[in-house]
Amino acid sequence: MSSMSSGKTIKQRLWPHIMFIRQSIRNVWEYVHFYIYDPSKPSKAEFLKLSVEDQQSWIEANVPKYVEKLYGDNYLGCSYEIDEDMVDEYLEYREDYNVLGLIGKQLPTISDERIDEIDEGAELTDEEREALRNGIAENDVSGWDLHSGFYFKVRFGALYCLFVGHERGQGGCDFELECVFKTKQLALRHLSNKPMVALEARQ
Question: Which of 1, 75, 97, 165 could form a disulfide with 146 if both were Cys (CB 3.0 to 4.6 A apart)?
Fold first, then answer.
């Protein structure tokens, strides 16, 4: 009994290492596969000259199960687009949008005196305006853009496609191609330049 238990314990200890080795082998094979010359595919330069619509059509037709690749480890993070017109609308109808609550949640040390001033229509400081933006974004869960991407093979080598999507509840996400980059690092740099973005730590 103890021998069987010991064997099971050893297998449990080794299993993560076995899985890591298997994943590493798959990653190496995928990398090698990218550099097998395939004249049936466009070159990097040819593909990058295509319109975004044509690029997405090509990916849909030539990358098997491409939608599945947009989930799991290929998820990069999310971003939120907010324009000044939306902020101004919130300020115009402060009570309806609970502007004081949104700002107070982001700035817990704000004084009661300042809250009263804002309630009476005082102009917001830059810090308070940024707090309002963050509060709007936090409350609008369905308004965040989701970002995923993956490498795909071209004639020789690979390119990185970045998709943007919106949640459809239990139906998953609606994804569309945002841009194609030479590397994943360039795609992450593009995302990091968005005004409000939260990237996965592992990136």
Answer: 165
C-alpha span between 177 and 180 (Å, rounded): 8
- CA-based nearest residue to 62, from 190, 148, 161: 161
Considering the domain boundaries, does residue 3 fall inside one?
A: no
Angle between helices 112-119 and 99-106 (to 10 degrees): 150
Q: Which residue is associated with the tokens 């809250």?
A: 115
DSSP label at residue 34: H
Alpha-carbon distance of 173 to 170, in angstroms, equals: 9
| pLDDT tens digits, 49-103 | 999 999 999 999 999 999 999 998 899 999 999 888 999 999 999 999 999 999 9
Do the Cβ atoms of 67 and 193 come closer than 8 Å? no
pLDDT greater than 50 at residue 19: no
Does residue 170 share a domain with residue 93?
no
Give the predicted TM-score (pTM) of the model: 0.76
Instruction: Please say which residue of 120, 139, 158 terminates a domain.
Output: 139
Token reading at 127: 């810090």
Looking at every residue in the chain, the average pLDDT score rounds to: 86
How far is Cα 123 from Cα 65, in angstroms, rounded to an integer? 51
Domain, as residue range, for 67: 36-79+143-199
Q: Same domain, yes or no, for 134 and 60?
A: no
